[in-house]
Amino acid sequence: MRYxxxxxxxxxxxxxxxxxxxxxxxxxxFGYDWPWYKGTPGYLWQQSICWMFILISGFCxxxxxxxxxxxxDCKRGLVVLAAGILITIATLLFSPQTxxxxxxLFFLGVSMILTAMLRPAFRKIPPFIGMxxxxxxxxxxxxxxxxxxxxETIVLFPLPNFLYEQGLLATFFGFxxxxxxxxxxxxxxxxxxxxxxxxxxCRCFLEKNSSAALPEFFxxxxxxxxxxxxxxxxxxxxxxxxxxxxxSFIL
Length: 251
What we know:
Elements: H1 4-28, H2 35-38, H3 40-61, H4 70-94, H5 104-122, H6 127-141, E1 148-151, E2 154-158, H7 168-173, H8 188-208, H9 223-230, H10 232-250
Antiparallel strand pairs: 1-2
Helix pairs in contact: 1-3, 1-9, 1-10, 3-5, 3-8, 4-5, 5-8, 6-8
C-alpha cells in the first residue's frame, strides 16, 4: 500500500530541493550575489529539506512488515547506497571542486540497511520511548561535526581534537577530519538518530491503530507532488545536470 501523504511530502521536499540547488548554482557557479542565501534564511531552507527527507525515509522504514527476509528489507537501501556511490564517483571525475563524499544518498542507504538489520531489537523498544531517546540523542549530538556536543548555537562542551584526526572512517561516523571537504555531507552521527525519530514515529502511529495500517489521513495527498515523490531517486539523480543545462542555456 502506498500512502499518498508520504509521497506528497517527499515530492514537496524534492521540489524545494530542486529550487534550493538552482539557487546554489546561481550563487556559487554563476556568480549571483545573494546574501540571504548565504545567511540564515538559506541555511534554514537547506535544513528544512534534509530534515524532511531523513524523517520521511525513517518513517517509511517503520512500515516494513514483520517476518520479511533481511535481504528483502535491505534491497532498497543497497540501491540508494549504490546511487550515493555513483554520485561520489561522478563528482570526483567530472567536478572535483564540488565533489560529494558521504552525501545524503550514501547516508540514507546505510541507514536503511542498518535499520533493517537492527529491526528485531528496535521492535522490543516501546515506540514513544524510542522516539524520545532518538530525539534527545540527535539534539545532544547535532554539533558533533563541529567538534562539540550541543544543538546549533547551544554548545554543551567540546570534544577532544584527536577524534577529528582519524581519517575518512571517523569522518563518516561524524568526527569530521579538518582536511575533509564535501559539498554534501551527512555523517551517520547525528543524522541516524533523526532517521530513527521518523522510524519510531511511524511505529507510534501503527501501535495506536489496531488494523496495523496508518490512519486515513495518510491516504490523502496532492497528485502533482505524489507523482514526483513516487520517483524520488531518479529525480534526485537527474535534477542537478538538468538544472545546470537549463541555466547554461538561459544565462
